[in-house]
Amino acid sequence: MVVMQLMAVFLFCLIHLFAGKLRFLDAIPRSRWLSFAGGVSVAYIFIHLFPEMAEIQESFSESEGFWLSLEHQTYFIALIGLSVFYGLERLIKSEHAGDGLMKRIRPSVFWLHLSSFALYNGLIAYLLVHRQDDTLTGLLFYAVAMALHFLVNDYGLRQHHKDSYRAYGRWLLSAAILLGWVLGRYTELNESIIHSLFAFLGGSTILNVLKEELPEERKSRFIPFVLGIAVFAGLVYLH
């Protein structure tokens, strides 16, 4: 299992380091491969993340303590994750307002945006070790879905930050993945904290997937998007 985790980590890192060389992803309308990857990510959210969040909520409900005994706190944490990344997206949009994507983003905003995604990547890698579904099949589904999710995120970050992302951002995000996995291997947080991190990841992933597919300027492709959903859903139900 450790070898499989390490292979997934290297795949995640390679995507950030070299996805910029995949010129066919820069097509307009949006590359069908990016829309397919977005569809897989959405399918993973609804088929895997939501049921696992329901299990987490059940475990919270059975725990003692004021916070853990509240109703729906799993979904509240997920909402926080979604809101945080929505705020970041609005901040970046405001930086581009007026001059389009050619406007240079302030360094402070660039580093805030990249640091947030570094923490996000590190969290994904940490939960690669501490997943709800600790089977080999669960690992494979998680690795494939997150790899395609990283591909979509990488494209969006390159569009926002251009040369700054190529020079610094991709290396930072790759290092965060490796660090997150190492922390996952050699540290183990309280189960309630891990569950809270998983819920936060769920909400964050929902926003980060949909913000890349839904805006009109993305000119997303519907059929590849739906095909990605169908393929991933079919694999899940056939395994």
From TrEMBL:
<feature type="transmembrane region" description="Helical">
    <location>
        <begin position="135"/>
        <end position="156"/>
    </location>
</feature>
<feature type="transmembrane region" description="Helical">
    <location>
        <begin position="168"/>
        <end position="186"/>
    </location>
</feature>
<feature type="transmembrane region" description="Helical">
    <location>
        <begin position="6"/>
        <end position="24"/>
    </location>
</feature>
<keyword id="KW-0472">Membrane</keyword>
<feature type="transmembrane region" description="Helical">
    <location>
        <begin position="222"/>
        <end position="238"/>
    </location>
</feature>
<protein>
    <recommendedName>
        <fullName>ZIP Zinc transporter</fullName>
    </recommendedName>
</protein>
<feature type="transmembrane region" description="Helical">
    <location>
        <begin position="33"/>
        <end position="50"/>
    </location>
</feature>
<feature type="transmembrane region" description="Helical">
    <location>
        <begin position="70"/>
        <end position="88"/>
    </location>
</feature>
<feature type="transmembrane region" description="Helical">
    <location>
        <begin position="109"/>
        <end position="129"/>
    </location>
</feature>
<keyword id="KW-0812">Transmembrane</keyword>
<feature type="transmembrane region" description="Helical">
    <location>
        <begin position="192"/>
        <end position="210"/>
    </location>
</feature>
<keyword id="KW-1133">Transmembrane helix</keyword>
